[in-house]
């Protein structure tokens, strides 16, 4: 018997199927957590610290307790023994310094926005009214905000008991790892050396659905609905944090309105809502305001990146040294300390370095904790290396694409062992680049750039390149183990064939916009030969999908999709035994295609639907065969997958106002085999939007007291329709060799690639004025200031730049280092 | 508490509301019309957009008492007899939604836009949707969808085409026209 379905009709894989998910979402028939209110639900509101660092000297809740409709008022002191400490699942080093992370502050607050009390009341409005009646006295402590000074000895401390603000220092060295040479030697021997410092600003994930948690304690299990990306992790972590037995907790992620890493978290509010429901014995619901999301939901990025690159005069790179400072904020959340470490594997990107050293020091400050945000460590790495390649090209007066071509892994060299210790299985950087250059009209734009420079146009044109790769499908469990991650990287699926031949696919991934219902239906449809419409995909409920590790890191298809393939193949194997019995032949004489088992060389056969019914009735099954076709599989990937692509941005910079306009954006991504091109394109578009937003618009800014001043959508500039260009996208397809579908992952690609493409374009437009960097976001003010400073310094210096090798003068930001 | 009478999606409700209750809170918490959602506190995101007498409003910036005596239309009323409105259909056809949280507001705003300008170009579509944020799509497919819907709904496109097959009747444009005649906000 052959298990590979050979389908002469159009296969589902590769079809631009419209989504099954849409019918409910476009008509308002939705199940957001906040939509649900079981009978008797009371509403929870959380009082948050307005100060960034203080001792709590007293909290007076007496007035709040007396207010209309108030069921309970609880402070940190009330639950100090019960609440436990929020989990950090990624202790990156054995000697990592980690503070206790109570869901609600007990003695002191460490960031503005930290929970200090909560009220449960009949209505959400009454609960919020009562918050106003709670009186908290704070005794101010020194506020630690700047990550560079926080990392120095003698700095005031965020957590006095740790004795330092440094959480951990993590290093990778190619000599120690046996993957390459000594980077200090490479830098000493360099014919060209480029030193730069970049600032990854702090970002806010800004999913559209505010977080919401509903806990119903009235059944045998506590049922927890949460706007989360990680229902399975949440269930385990509730048990481990609060001590409530895991089998007494059921977690449901119903419709979830976006996450982007921002809902890859086990939140204080999930624990607090749980504790309030436990205390009151009735359903409790908490739904945050947008400002609460902004100040208390975790932030992303926030690094200072110092890079030194060694190269030969012909542009061949030889060594790369990376020193990072990463801002953890006030506490370690679920994977905070590991996020910058993920970048360690990616700074070398698609280039062949002989020597590499990466050092990252994680630092505590009195700010909102940071954690995963779309790309998580990889956008930061990609930004820095792609900026460096442009800087190297400028030093050598070479075309920046030529410098990249000279150094990237050619398509004949795969599989390729990188200096960072990964094995890239496949890729074709030449093909993606050639296609992108052609679509973009690279040479014509370069010609126009020259013309504009020659005629001194007030609007200058810049061309930005980003040739990136990333690692998806987090991850082989053994790799996660080697990185001290607290869990594995497997994924689970079950395929159930119902008596009527309809199919239920259970997945442990937990979509919140990624279209798994449609894509998984396509995958299983091809595998079983069952119509797309006859498949239901079940997810996001620990009762119906008991095993899984959820959705993040572009892992769902490359890991969870493969589990569904393996479960489907087991179904076919199981059905084959029954089919052979029904057809009175040997299993080896059967071919399976398009949902039908046929006896080879005859016209005899039976459909899988009839086999399912035969299994169900169980009147005449072969010896030892159970009466169903259901099967399940847990899949642990053997490697990451490595999508790549070439992104090109043409930006116009108005040299009088500093305004930036993206004139053209072209990207050619290679995400391997494509299940559904419509969904892939959507993921790329959305990724681009977020990456461009980092380059041009978004930044979480704290004032000198540690107050977040960008705590609404009026201040934090999530781009609108008017802020983004029309993207031109295409794909090349180089199959991943690490999984049977050849798929890679697409969720983060656009975000990872686009930021440096845009900033490279902005700098390229004004480099001839002496500008070598513009700090993100490249707002009109920053661009204008970078131009002004460059012009004034070139007026006082005989020559600007020039010569082989340069560094930013003060070790700080080359230009535009203000806010 | 003030007593109000409001027509929401064709049903008349008379209720007592607190003076401070927002229209969106009234819809969600008192009427159970949870198809309309809240995305921000500052009327920046537009997720809560509904129609008040045929004109789009952000229902987080209207008090429930201000809706007294008026007609409110939410996304829940657009499809009829199981058939999607052309805009809903176009959002589906063009993959103009991912998580779908902004979609109700986006569709209601797009409907208002097409009532004002039945044949918008891409720039006009982008301008018309500027007050509605989406974090998933990068807007490109939303613009496509609205353009697509405008072609489906265009008066010259002909009723036969609009009524045939899966494409439902162009309910909105005539309803919108009527609403404007009767005075709007």
Automatic annotation (TrEMBL), chain A:
The protein's UniProt keywords, in alphabetical order, are: Molybdenum, Oxidoreductase
Q: Which residues form a coiled coil?
A: none
Q: Where is the composition biased (Low complexity)?
A: 788-799
Q: What class of enzyme is it?
A: oxidoreductase
Q: Tell me which EC number(s) this protein carries.
A: 1.2.7.4
Species per Swiss-Prot/TrEMBL record: Actinopolyspora biskrensis
Q: Which residues cross the membrane?
A: none
Organism classification: Bacteria, Bacillati, Actinomycetota, Actinomycetes, Actinopolysporales
Provide the Aldehyde oxidase/xanthine dehydrogenase a/b hammerhead domain boundaries: 27-142
Matching entries from SMART domains are given as:
Ald_Xan_dh_C
Q: Which cofactor does it need?
A: Mo-molybdopterin cytosine dinucleotide
Q: What is this protein called?
A: Carbon-monoxide dehydrogenase large subunit
- Record's Pfam families? Ald_Xan_dh_C, MoCoBD_1, MoCoBD_2
UniProtKB/TrEMBL annotation, chain B:
Cite the residue spans of the region called Disordered: 149-185
The keyword Chloroplast is assigned to this record: no
What pathway does the UniProt record associate with this protein?
Alkaloid degradation; nicotine degradation
Q: Keywords in alphabetical order, please.
A: 2Fe-2S, Iron, Iron-sulfur, Metal-binding, Oxidoreductase
Q: Which residue range or ranges hold the 2Fe-2S ferredoxin-type domain? A: 2-78
| Molecular-function GO term, any one | metal ion binding
Pfam family of the protein (one): Fer2_2
Name the top EC class: oxidoreductase
Q: What does the record give as EC number? A: 1.2.7.4
Query: Could you tell me which SUPFAM superfamilies the record lists for this protein?
Result: 2Fe-2S ferredoxin-like, CO dehydrogenase ISP C-domain like
Q: Which PANTHER family match?
A: OXIDOREDUCTASE WITH IRON-SULFUR SUBUNIT
Record protein name field? Carbon-monoxide dehydrogenase small subunit
